[in-house]
Write a structure and sequence with these properties.
With 127 residues, this protein is an all-alpha fold. It has three helices and no strands. 1% of the residues are buried.
Length: 127
């Protein structure tokens, strides 16, 4: 059952949604579902929550130090499926663009390396 389909009250007992959830799971979910974004847990804070403690490894948790902008119009209402498809398409497009840039960079580096070797060869042959 989707949480989005439930007539959800913010002050409701979250155990009604999943009666087998532990108190730690309920607490984490309540903190993640805070309506006020300033009160809501960040990803880093969520990873430090007792419910996720067994999975928390600060040495293997990369942090993005900049905001991520998703180029999907916030003023257009999409179905969940449409949003999912647009988001996936954007991820695929960006990955292709990153790969293209990496290949171009490698090509330029190879060309510079060849030019450098030729230059060294010419200078050593002319002495």
């Amino acid at each position: 059952m989707s949480v989005f389909l439930i007539n959800f009250r913010w002050d409701a007992n979250l155990l009604q949604i999943n009666p087998t959830a532990s108190p730690e799971a309920e607490d984490l979910l309540r903190r993640l579902l805070q309506f006020n974004p300033h009160k809501r847990l960040t990803a880093e804070q969520a990873l430090q929550h007792p419910y996720l403690a067994q999975f928390h490894n600060p040495m293997d948790e990369p942090v993005c130090n900049r905001g991520i902008r998703i180029p999907i119009d916030d003023n257009t209402k999409f179905t969940i499926q449409e949003y999912r498809e647009r988001l996936y398409s954007e991820i695929v497009r960006r990955k292709k663009e990153i790969r293209r840039k990496m290949r171009e960079k490698e090509r330029v580096e190879r060309d510079l390396s060849r030019q450098s070797r030729r230059s060294k060869y010419r200078s050593s042959g002319s002495t």
